[in-house]
Amino acid sequence: MRTKVAIIGAGPSGLLLSQLLNLAGIETVVLERKSRDYVLSRIRAGVLEWTTVQLLRAAGVGDRMDREGMVHDGCYLSSNNNMFRVDFHEACGKQVMVYGQTEVTRDLYDAQEALGATVIHDAEDVALHDLESDAPWVSYTIGGVPQRLDCDYVAGCDGFHGVSRPTIPEGVRREYEKVYPFGWLGILSRTPPVAEELIYAAHDRGFALASMRNPMLSRYYIQVPLTDRVEDWSDEAFWAELKLRLPEEACKSLITGPSIEKSIAPLRSFVTEPMRWGRLFLVGDAAHIVPPTGAKGLNLAASDVFYLSQGFKDFYGAGDAAGLEGYSQKALARIWKAMRFSWSMTTMMHRFPEHNAYERRMQDTEMAVLETSDTARKWMAENYTGLPY
Ligand code: FAS
Ligand code: PHB
Questions:
Q1: Across residues 204-222, what is the average pLDDT?
Q2: What is the pLDDT of residue 199?
Q3: Domains of the chain
Q4: Which terminal residue of the chain, N or C, has fewer Cβ atoms less than 10 Å from its own Cβ?
């Protein structure tokens, strides 16, 4: 089999890149390790930057998002029960869309099917070959039967644990990492959200987040030690802890219910440079991971896809390789700014076992500056709603 761009991974990065390239008449093949049902069973991000919204509309997958998604003008922050609102629209004229990553992925799958794009599931043992030549190729197996895909380029959209990043020789890769000493225990419940916008709560017991997917589907998180396991947390224990961390004012309208999904995600900041090696381009979580406090993970995948798809369109459309040559530098410039924002929000709102009294005071003061300074709120609003591409 032969194609122009081999895409490894059918998460948001891979499917969105395939969608944009196929719309431009550039042939792709997506190789996904898991089944479609497995991919769609994952509960991940919830907030879309406005640039992501516009890109999804350009990809022809904005209709259900515009019908079912919720446009938010702001969010609430609280520090030990003192709650205040950051009005994004007032501060920087922009908004965000609350629409789950699972739904984005579902819309992309449906659009790919309508286009007749090639997405191959249960592709195991994927390996990348001859990436520094002008004839790269990908080997994989289906049901144990060896397969070969010849291509012009490979897009590594296979996430943090994928095969693409490790294929770049260690001597070429520069990796930057910060592992946080805690994780997020998240649940999904068929209950109305506690508020009309998200609440990010800093508390001496630990961070909490009240989010949502729709008017009858809520998503909540609490910071937990890395030693905690999901089975350590009954629904009752989760709700009791959440009530201790969310502002009392909000808890008056908290409706609890059975969890329909419960998981713990560790938090880390990670970047690998460069995001290109020969004919391989890294995209999304394959190249970078952010702590979810800034709601940047999925949105950085979208900006990577925007830059790379533009590069391929220029190359295949006009023989102009400048976009492909400049992809890594351009993507990393935006990635590092999102890294900074995510690190800043995480450092400000979580309780760190190693923090002393001074560092705790600095956290409280960071929150107080956000509450009282228009300039600080403008900085947060610009970063949260998404820096320009
Ligand atoms: P993904 O990891 O989504 O997709 C990679 C795909 O490649 C997967 O389908 C995988 O099966 C496939 N793959 C892997 N190895 C392969 C191989 N060798 N061969 C073929 N296929 C292979 N972001 C937020 O903004 N907010 C959040 O709240 C949030 N919560 C998260 C919770 C968890 C547990 C995790 C892991 C991430 C979370 N994220 C969150 C970040 C997340 O949304 C990612 O940014 C987003 O999924 C990135 O999309 P992809 O780059 O497509 O990577
Ligand atoms: C979510 O709804 O899953 C979500 C929202 C905002 C975040 C992280 C997660 O910052």
A1: 97
A2: 98
A3: 5-74+97-177+268-345 (3.50.50.60)
A4: N
pLDDT at 80 over 90: no
Q: What b/e string do you get for 62-75 counting C-beta neighbours within 10 Å, with b at 16 or more? A: beebeeebeebbbb
Alpha helices in 295-326 (DSSP H): 297-318, 322-325
User: For the chain, where are the E strands, in sequence order?
Assistant: 5-8, 28-31, 47-49, 70-72, 74-79, 82-87, 96-98, 118-120, 123-129, 137-142, 145-150, 153-156, 174-189, 199-202, 208-214, 217-225, 259-273, 276-277, 280-282, 288-289
Say how many Å lie between the CA of residue 314 and the centre of ligand 1.
28
pTM higher than 0.85 = yes
CA distance 282 to 4: 16
3-state secondary structure of 141: strand
Ligand number nearest CA of 185 is 1
**Which listed ligand is nearest to 100 at the C-alpha?**
2
Q: Is the pLDDT of residue 317 over 90?
A: yes
Three state DSSP letters for 214-258: ECCEEEEEEEEECCCCHHHCCHHHHHHHHHHHCCHHHHCCCCCCC
